[in-house]
């Protein structure tokens, strides 16, 4: 066991776990953040997607020992700054979720996409979102919700992810 | 007594009910469900499911149908809110716990709205009438001058009383036996767009799924199953496992399926990762002898093909099909195959069980039916229903899988040994390689045409029976009625002038099978609708017109004509493009689909999918569309992604790299249209699926001249 000081959603989190424990299980079972989901454990489904320094990462494949003290981890619980993120609002407007289980991962991928590319084309969306499986089949609505959020950003010119 | 008091207290707490007012229960879910009144005192009589209006005006409904994404937590309360004249967000919902008092509680067979449509509305209407009567009495005015509106009874003069103010007195009234239901034209909620109130928690990470539930003192277990599913443990070497920090114990356990029990080994740990890692380090020798043949695709499908050459057991026969087929001049015969499929909900199977010293049991699990879970737990642990409490957690997808409780019983078995609450989490590998699966099936089709019309049709259905395995209920000389019902003339509405037949042969396998989204309709829609297409071409008829000719039923006609219009069926397509259609009725709803494809390299590209559904009355059109969109994706996945195959006793697929499901970049343009027939409600969660694969197969034929008869097929390389 070893002590890790993590920065999760801009809060300090201290855990005492095995070095090879994937961030997914650290977040879920030791940091009490259950919004990040387990789906496959082999980087195939994207349910466990979080942001590492703003970049989407599969937390099931990220040993906690590889995460540095200064690395910023963001989970679904941390994207809205206490409010609904523009992406989350779009997800509600388009009524995207069915069971909703995959949606934390979907949203984390979408937030990262819009941050780097506020006006994505369908091809951009394909590239950014195809690592996230949805067995309920909500893909068509995910696509619409991303376009909707992009529109909102344009209108409000607020710039996504500005803190 | 104590129990009842506790459960009531919990219930009241959960639903934030301040004090007790008017409560109504429905006994049984039959069409003429009788309504009974529950006061605080007679609640103990346990007449349920029930509606409670407390004196603060809060309205609570026990939702007897777990939500796995299909929208039952919106659909069921909508029925109540409509009749009660309250807006949807005024209704609090608590999930039933499996207690027999709530009646049937399993989400399956697309049944929630179909079965609750009248009983729940009646309960709402009765409450509305009682509240109105109470207000009229209090004001000393005729009832006709009072109306229910937004949680209040309003008098023509404008004065009003809230439901909360009336509930106590209203509860003393006789319950009207035949309350007047609202007319469809007056519906404010039913049939209207409404956002699902459970969506916000599903986009913020706040929704608590089964896998997220924590119970004090709980330990985790990961289970190593035999690669041959039914193998026996010869020896266990847990030396490496024991070295994993957090691992507490390695114990022998078992996996109990409805029809048999298999040996397994559990790694119990203080956290989930340790349990999973410990399992990877475990070395178990298995005796898998004998399963090389009985868990083997090649052998199974060879047996189905052999059966296709022999007569089966008839479900129904009209005219002497065999004689007429023998004499027919223009005829066809073909075999259509569908694979075994895993459900693969993204939330894998998981359950917490706490088998306590006093013999009582508590379960927390994402299950489709608390009633079935209760039955299975009682049967397995030999305990009484009153000793068991089932807490249904939110389901991260299910598609039929989570109405099969092997994983719950595993948690029970382990908890009993370690004497703690135990959370069992299946890995994706368990989920994909252990089953149960949709059975792989063969359709042996025969048909003939006469003067340009399809007049003879025989569907011989061949394969493993879900009824035989899961309910142990099928006799050797009996046909699985589940299948026959769906393909019968009565359901399919196809009218063949000369002769028609539906028959069945059971081919047994040790591969565990169970219902999968739309059950057998997902298998046999493929054979039926592709073969109709083949016969249409034999008759030199347009596949749509050929169907319209033999589907005189008005609803089918409307669905097909709507599809033709929305999908622009008659448009002239460029060379290399083609459209295919299919229609299928299941779970009381008719769904049809048109797919357009275009040749691309060695395969085809899907340009567009248009689906039409007539599900009779529905609650939320947006949810009908969402479910149908989901069915398009799942139907396409079943057609062109991976099937489950067994080779010499072992499943060839283990995770999503071998059992691929459609991804966003592969999602075609899609449209869903609803036909308003005003018929009794049909299902919504499943009926959209069966026509997808055959519409695609028929489109491939239209575009390329290649007839696909075996699923799945490689859309990028048609061979
Ligand atoms: S759980 Fe990490 S990608 Fe599936
Ligand atoms: S919404 Fe159920 S898996 Fe995506």
From TrEMBL, chain A:
Protein name, as recorded: Isoquinoline 1-oxidoreductase subunit alpha
Enzyme Commission number(s) from the entry: 1.3.99.16
Swiss-Prot/TrEMBL keywords: 2Fe-2S, Iron, Iron-sulfur, Metal-binding, Oxidoreductase
Domain of life: Bacteria
Any Pfam family: Fer2
InterPro entries: 2Fe-2S-bd (IPR002888), 2Fe-2S-bd_dom_sf (IPR036884), 2Fe-2S_ferredoxin-like_sf (IPR036010), 2Fe-2S_ferredoxin-type (IPR001041), 2Fe2S_fd_BS (IPR006058), Beta-grasp_dom_sf (IPR012675), Diverse_Oxidoreductases (IPR051452)
Entry annotated with the keyword Metal-binding: yes
Coiled coil: none
TrEMBL record, chain B:
Origin superkingdom: Bacteria
PROSITE patterns attached to this UniProt entry: TAT
GO MF terms held by the record: isoquinoline 1-oxidoreductase activity
Keyword entries, A-Z: Oxidoreductase
Domain Aldehyde oxidase/xanthine dehydrogenase a/b hammerhead per the UniProt entry, residue ranges: 204-290
InterPro entries per UniProt: Ald_Oxase/Xan_DH_a/b (IPR000674), AldOxase/xan_DH_MoCoBD1 (IPR008274), AldOxase/xan_DH_MoCoBD2 (IPR046867), AldOxase/xan_DH_Mopterin-bd_sf (IPR037165), N-heterocyclic_Hydroxylase (IPR052516), OxRdtase_Mopterin-bd_su_IorB (IPR012368), TAT_signal (IPR006311), TAT_signal_bac_arc (IPR019546)
EC number: 1.3.99.16
NCBIfam families named among the record's database cross-references: TAT_signal_seq
Protein name (Swiss-Prot/TrEMBL): Isoquinoline 1-oxidoreductase subunit beta
Taxonomic path: Bacteria, Pseudomonadati, Bacteroidota, Cytophagia, Cytophagales
């Amino acid at each position: 066991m070893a002590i890790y000081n993590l920065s999760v959603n801009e809060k300090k989190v201290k855990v005492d776990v095995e070095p090879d424990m994937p961030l997914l299980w650290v977040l879920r079972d030791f940091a009490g953040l259950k919004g990040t989901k387990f789906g496959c454990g082999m980087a195939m489904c994207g349910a466990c997607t979080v942001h590492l320094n703003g970049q989407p990462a599969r937390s099931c494949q990220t040993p906690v020992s590889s995460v540095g003290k200064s690395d910023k981890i963001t989970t679904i619980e941390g994207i809205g700054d206490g409010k609904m993120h523009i992406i989350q609002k779009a997800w509600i407007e388009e009524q995207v979720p069915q069971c909703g289980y995959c949606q934390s991962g979907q949203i984390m991928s979408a937030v990262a996409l819009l941050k780097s590319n506020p006006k994505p084309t369908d091809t951009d969306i394909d590239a950014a979102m195809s690592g996230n499986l949805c067995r309920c089949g909500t893909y068509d609505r995910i696509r619409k919700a991303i376009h909707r959020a992009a529109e909102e950003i344009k209108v409000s010119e607020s710039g996504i992810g500005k803190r | 007594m104590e129990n009842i008091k506790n459960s009531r207290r919990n219930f009241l707490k959960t639903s934030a009910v301040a004090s007790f007012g008017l409560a109504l229960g429905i006994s049984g879910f039959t069409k003429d469900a009788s309504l009974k009144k529950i006061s605080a005192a007679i609640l103990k009589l346990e007449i349920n499911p029930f509606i409670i209006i407390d004196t603060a005006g809060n309205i609570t409904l026990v939702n007897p149908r777990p939500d796995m994404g299909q929208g039952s937590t919106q659909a069921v309360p909508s029925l109540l809110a409509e009749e009660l004249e309250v807006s949807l967000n005024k209704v609090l919902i608590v999930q039933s716990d499996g207690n027999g008092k709530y009646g049937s509680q399993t989400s399956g067979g697309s049944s929630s709205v179909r079965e609750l449509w009248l009983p729940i509305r009646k309960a709402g209407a009765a409450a509305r009438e009682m509240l109105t009567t109470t207000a009229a009495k209090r004001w000393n005015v005729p009832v006709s001058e009072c109306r229910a509106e937004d949680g209040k009874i309003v008098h023509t003069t404008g004065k009003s009383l809230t439901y909360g103010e009336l509930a106590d007195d209203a509860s003393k009234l006789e319950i009207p036996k035949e309350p007047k239901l609202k007319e469809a034209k007056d519906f404010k909620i039913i049939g209207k767009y409404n956002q699902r109130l459970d969506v916000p928690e599903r986009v913020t990470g706040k929704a608590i799924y089964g896998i997220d539930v924590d119970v004090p003192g709980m330990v985790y277990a990961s289970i190593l199953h035999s690669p041959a599913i039914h193998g026996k443990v010869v020896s266990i070497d847990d030396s490496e496992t024991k070295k994993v920090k957090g691992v507490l114990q390695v114990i022998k356990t078992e996996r109990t399926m409805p029809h048999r029990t298999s040996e397994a080994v559990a790694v119990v740990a203080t956290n989930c990762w340790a349990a999973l890692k410990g399992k990877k380090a475990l070395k178990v020798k298995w005796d898998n002898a004998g399963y090389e043949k009985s868990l083997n695709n090649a052998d199974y499908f060879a047996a189905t093909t052999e059966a296709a050459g022999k007569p089966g057991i008839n479900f129904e026969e009209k005219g002497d099909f065999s004689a007429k087929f023998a004499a027919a001049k223009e005829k066809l015969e073909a075999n259509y195959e569908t694979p075994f499929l895993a459900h693969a909900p993204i939330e894998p199977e998981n359950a917490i069980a706490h088998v306590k010293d006093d013999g009582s049991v508590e379960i927390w699990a994402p299950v489709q039916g608390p009633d079935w879970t209760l039955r299975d737990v009682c049967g397995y642990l030999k305990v009484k229903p009153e000793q068991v409490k089932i807490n249904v957690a939110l389901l991260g997808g299910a598609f039929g899988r989570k109405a099969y409780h092997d994983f719950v019983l595993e948690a029970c078995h382990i908890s009993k040994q370690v004497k703690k609450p135990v959370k069992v989490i299946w890995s994706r590998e368990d989920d994909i390689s252990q089953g149960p699966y949709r059975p792989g099936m063969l359709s042996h089709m025969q048909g003939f045409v006469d003067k340009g019309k399809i007049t003879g049709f025989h569907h011989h259905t061949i394969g493993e029976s879900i009824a035989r395995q899961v309910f142990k209920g099928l006799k050797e000389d009996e046909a699985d009625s589940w299948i026959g019902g769906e393909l019968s003339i009565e359901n399919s509405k196809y009218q063949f002038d000369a002769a028609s037949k539906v028959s069945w042969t059971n081919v047994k396998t040790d591969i565990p099978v169970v219902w999968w989204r739309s059950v057998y309709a997902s298998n046999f829609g493929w054979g039926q609708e592709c073969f109709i297409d083949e016969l249409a071409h034999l008759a030199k008829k347009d596949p749509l017109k050929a169907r319209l000719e033999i589907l005189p039923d008005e609803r089918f006609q409307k669905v097909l004509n709507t599809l033709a219009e929305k999908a622009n069926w008659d448009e002239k397509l460029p060379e290399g493009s083609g459209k295919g259609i299919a229609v299928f009725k299941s779970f009381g709803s008719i769904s049809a689909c048109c797919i357009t494809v275009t040749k691309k390299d060695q395969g085809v590209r899907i340009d567009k999918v248009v689906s039409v559904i007539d599900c009779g009355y529905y609650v939320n059109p947006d949810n009908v569309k969402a479910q149908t969109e989901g069915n398009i994706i799942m139907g396409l996945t079943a057609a062109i992604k991976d099937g489950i195959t067994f080779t010499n006793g072992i499943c060839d697929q283990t995770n999503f790299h071998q059992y691929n499901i459609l991804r966003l970049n592969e999602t075609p343009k899609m449209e869903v249209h609803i036909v308003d027939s005003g018929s009794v409600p049909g299902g919504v969660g499943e009926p959209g699926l069966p026509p997808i694969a055959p519409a695609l197969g028929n489109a491939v034929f239209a575009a390329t001249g290649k007839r696909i008869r075996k699923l799945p097929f490689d859309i990028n390389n048609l061979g």
